[in-house]
Fold these 2 entries.
Entry 1:
Amino acid sequence: MRWELCRRTHERLRRIVAALEFSHVNPSRIFCVRGYGSTSEAWARIWGLPTLWQQVLEIGPAYVVEIIEPEFSRLPEDEQDRILIHELLHIPRTFSGAIRPHRTPTFRINRRTVERYYQQYLAAATGRSGAHARDGERLLPAQPAGKTMAAISPRSPATPRGRSSRFGSHRSVR
């Protein structure tokens, strides 16, 4: 497994953050890498820096968005943007280094949510007036400590209805 910094992906993330007005996200504390040689079934994943590490190393919160190659590059650009939006949705409003889970009582990160934000991103990128997320879909505080990574996979486990869901499941490392 090897990684390399990816400025091109970082610039895309900056554009998405600005277009979606994710004021809680600090792009200068998000690092983007391309990973090669992974056996993961993911296209991308986000890693958070837990509070313990922040305190011990005396540094602030940070995130790493890892793009899994060659799978990610094989996707159309619109799907890549959706995946990047999905990973950004895992960053809590507190920007604490924690990873936000797929489901909370008031917010879900799923294909429908990602598509809504993607349409808002397109509207902002083309200068049209886009719909903002509904009040019930505000970004919420972080999940409990311990989960520091989420990934998006092309072959996700089946959903409760028995269908696979492209944006509905992640694997977490504890």
Entry 2:
Amino acid sequence: MAKTKTTTKDKAAPKGKGKVLDQVASPSRINIGIANEDRKEIAEGLAHYLSDAFTLYLKTHNFHWNVTGSMFNSLHAMFMDQYTEQWNALDDVAERIRALGYNAPGSYAEFIRLTSIREEEGADGVPDWKGMVQQLVAGNEAVCRTARSVLQTADDAGDDPTVDLLTQRLQTHEKYAWMLRSLLE
């Protein structure tokens, strides 16, 4: 059975206005065994993933700082474990974009334009602990959806390093969503 090529138009990740990424090197100077069109599509998908992952990291860190109530101790520690792991993983994603020959997004403006996760209002708009957990479940699930769409594109193009990276990230974010969801049962 032949695989159907998925395009970025089919993805769950949002589309920003204008160009998503700038290419670092001319396409003819990069020959890693992945077609130029595929590298661009994968890098753009990873830019959306990176934006979702960074937004989720920031939200998790915000909630770590601002959690209160009966669940303070356990959630404060859980959120710290999660945002620390997320922070460390961001670099691998950005470096993969660079290895594909594109600049990684790195500003709040770019992340806001490319993310599918709603930005929070900061300290004035912080929900109670249950609201925090619900938002982090939704955020981890959004990151999973974006990762899956990019993973499929990378798999179709034979980009095993990106497939491996996103498989690991999916395992982590699915676990986080499950652990957080369990708190609400």
